[in-house]
Amino acid sequence: MHVGTAIITSVLAMTLASGSVVAQGGATARSSILVAGSGSITWWKPSTSDSRRFTADMNPRVGFFIFDGLAVNGNLQYVRQSYQSGKSSRLGVGPGLTYYFCNPESRLHPFVTGRSLFSWTNTFWESNGAETRNHDVYWLVGGGLIVMLVKHVGLSTEVFYQWSEHDFAPDSSPPTSAELYGIRFGVAAFLF
């Protein structure tokens, strides 16, 4: 009987404590958790040839607020591409930091972010049966806004600059780099 009472008392205490945390905090308050992501599906066909490309791209992110407004993020990326001559898949993972300039209980959350991604790409060329592997590094800086639709969920818009370096293995080609500018839309959910 004492064990049952202890369990009920513990559950009641944790419930009351979590209620007081929610009442004091907000979306970007310390100890909140952010689950966010963006994705895209694109078809590409140049006007000068019959080559085509299909791309599906998913970018989930999880963040933990270590201070009010400052989140440490874990970023993932999965990209699948199909060409007439082959197909490729890319998997990436990396850390990031995001700072939100607002009251944690605000409906508008402007932010700046810096992220990195270390990825591995496998490409299979159907024409000759060859397979190549890339090791890529991405660095991204950006800024944007999350507009809260309800207390815990919002839509995000982000303008970004991305620099990347691509290392083709086992090919002896020197690494190449690329720059990308863009705007990204997504969904964000805050657990607090």
Keyword list:
192 residues, Porin, 1 helix, mainly beta
- State the share of residues found in helices, binned by percent: 10-25%
The biggest sheet amounts to: 8 strands, antiparallel, barrel
Average pLDDT confidence is 85
Report the β-strand fraction as a percent range.
Answer: over 45%
Tell me how many strands there are.
8
Q: Helix and strand string, N-terminal first?
A: HEEEEEEEE
Provide the CATH top-level class: Mainly Beta
Going by helix content, strand content and strand pairing, the class is mainly beta
| CATH fold-level name | Porin
What is the 3D form?
elongated
Q: Unreliable stretches, pLDDT < 50, 5 or more residues?
A: 3-23
Radius of gyration: 22 Å
User: For the terminal residues, how far apart are their CA atoms?
Assistant: 34 Å
How many domain regions? Answer: 1
Strand order of the largest sheet: 1-2-3-4-5-6-7-8
CATH-defined architecture: Beta Barrel
Please work out how many helical segments DSSP would assign.
1
Question: What features would you describe in this structure?
Answer:
By secondary structure, this protein is mainly β. The chain has one domain: Beta Barrel (Porin). It is 12% helix and 66% strand. It is built from one helix and eight strands, in the order αββββββββ. Strands 1-2-3-4-5-6-7-8 form an eight-stranded antiparallel β-barrel. The longest helix is centred in the first third of the chain and has 23 residues. The protein is elongated. The two termini are 34 Å apart.
